[in-house]
Each structure stands twice: as C-alpha cells, then as structure tokens.
Write the structure tokens for this entry.
Amino acid sequence: MSVDQSDASQACKPQTAPLLARAAAAAVRSDVHLASAIQDFFLAEGDRLDDRTRAATAATLRAILNSIAHDLTGHAAEQLAGHAVEPCTAALPRHAAAGALVHRLYASGLLRDHGLMEELFAQARQDILSDALLVNRAPGATPSFLPALSAGSDEGLADAAIAYLHAENARRAGGRSDVPGPLRERLTWWAAAVLREKWSGGSSGRIAIDRAIAGAAQHSISAYRDDDRLEAIADRLAALLRPGAAELSERLAQSLEEGHLALFVALLAQVLAVDAREIRALLLDPAGEQLSLALRAAGLDRAAIARVGFLLTEADPRRDIEAFADTLDVVAMIAPEEALEGLALLTLPTDFRAAVRALDRAVAR
C-alpha cells in the first residue's frame, strides 16, 4: 500500500510552522546575545556600568513607568465609562497594564534614549554618592546645616529648607521617582502608544479608545509640575541662601558633608550662571579636574577646593587621591577669571552646547 507523501507533508505544516518560527527566533536571539557579549567584552573597565547604578536606574525607570501607567489607565477608564468597548475594559486592571507597559517599552528599544538614560544614570549616581558621603560622616555626627535653617527666624528660608528636606527624603526612600518635564512627556506618549496597542486590538471602539488614551496622556502631562522636583526646590533654596564669596565655600562643603548634593549643584550653578545639569555632570565625574576648575572659577581658594575634593575622594572609590593632589596646586594658581574661561562651553545655551558636542564627537570618530 502506498502513502501519498505530499498529503502527509501538507498535514504536518500546521504543527511544524510554530516550531520553525521559534527556531528562527532563537537564532536571531542568539546573534543578538553574541553581539551584546562581544560589546561587553571590549568595554573598558571604567566604561562598564556598575551593578548598583544598574539596579538603581532600573528601579527608578520602572517606578516612573508604573506611575504613568496607573495614571493613564485610571483617567482613560473614566473617559470610557459607559462606552461599549469590551476589549478595552477587559484589559484595564492597573497592575497588569503597568507590567505589560514596562515590558513592551523595554523590548521596543524606545528607552535607549540618550537624554532619558543620561538623566536616570545621573540620578542613580548622585544618590549613591550621597549615601556614601553620609556613611563617611564622623561617628555621632548629626546633620546641622539644613535643620538650623529650618528652625531659623527667616520664614521664607525655613520653608524652603523644610521643602528641600522633604523632597530629598522622599527621593531617597523611593517615594518620589521623577524626571524633568520634557522627558516625562516623552515617556507619557510612549506609554500611551503601548496602551493603545494593548487595548485597541480587535476592538470596534478604536476611535473612542484613542481619544480616551490621548486625553489621559494630555491630562497627565498638564498635571505634572517640574516645580515639585528636588532639583527645582534646591534651586529655590540656593537663590534664597545667596551666599557671598566668603560664605560659599562653607555652604558647599556643608552640603557635601550632609549629602545634600542637589543643593551643592544648585549653589555652584547659580554662582557660575551655568546649567545645573552641567555642574552635576562635573560633580559625578570621577576625574574631578573640571569640578576643581569650576570651584576655582567660583572663587574658592586652595584649602576650600581641597576640602571638597577630599570629601568626594573618600566617598567615591573610583577617584584617585594622588591625581587630585597633583592637580590641586595647578588649579589653585589659576585666576578665577581664567578658570571660568576654561568652562566657557558650559555657559552656552543648551541646544548650542549639544550641537558643538555633536560636531566634536563626529570629528573624534
């Protein structure tokens, strides 16, 4: 008895197709994993992301996306109340929506955004450095700088100091995860696109769903206040402090000693009239030369620069104490005006700085 092989082949196709698809996908994943492993192998040790920064960055990103997802699903559900949109209402449990959103954005590659990741890495590194500075305080030492301001007779200054302490404590406790308004707006629209993808599939109410999600995103964006961020509160406190040349070095050192890095950044940024994000980058750079130059430009003498530098070196194991000591004498001999000229690029408008750096990177390649 003969068997028709063509019929058997046709009968097997429905069963083999998924297997073949999975095999093809596995081959692609293998290539991707190999490419990632090769890239990681050739990374210089100083360029590799450490585990603490990686974990802190991931936690902050997930917290922000979860917050946005909960916000969007809640407002969209309210707008869809009464609409006969079954596929959407079935997909509205907030925790499930938030988890799916985070996973989809990770997989999409949208989160590989230079500005977003720069901000998240900086926040993580700032928090890690702040914790290390607090650990290095003398046994039994208690914070006195901001508590003294909080209890002072200047009501405006006291309120600003209290607001700063509350915002800083909330961020350290993980109760407030945020990014600047433009970045959060970008994340909100990405999240909205993922929710649309999840909710609209096979639904006859696509138009209603689109309008509900867009309205929820616009509501979330308009309700977000940059003024409530730690960095904005630090900026207001620094403006109220207005330290003179003689007082600035003490204020900066006190801010470091007590782990108030956002305040340190705001104080120095205002004195130099430089974008606070640039000062934060100098503070977090383990090389430290540009920060020393910025401190000199602000009028700090050798002893004051040394105090700041040694505090940071003790808190950050990546910093080279001998290299800092060698640089210190050279920096101290530079006039403040000359030091400021060396930081001229940092004083340019944001987009101008970005364009100059983009051209420099192109030349370097």
The chain has 18 helices and no strands. Residues 28 and 304 are 56 Å apart (CA to CA). Residues 86-93 have pLDDT under 50 and may be disordered.
